[in-house]
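Schema walk-through. Below, the input block comes first and the output block second. Nothing else is stored per chain. Lengths vary across the set, and this one has 79 residues.
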Amino acid sequence: MSSSRRRVVIAAGGAIETALLPSHLARLSPWRDLFDIQIVLSDGGARLVSADALRAITRMPVHDSADLVDPQCNEPFHI
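--- output ---
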């Protein structure tokens, strides 16, 4: 991320609005060069929208529940 870009983190849970997230992100595409959009996708959210779709739209990795647990101590990371 360059210093002139802002980071936006979106937590996508199991709510129905998550299914509409790709559409909302597509509307932001004209401003894509201004923001790095990071998605954190819960297991419930993954039932509503594919991580691959979100990754394709944001051009960034999508973080899921496997990314949120420290493998050394099996405790969740703080977000």
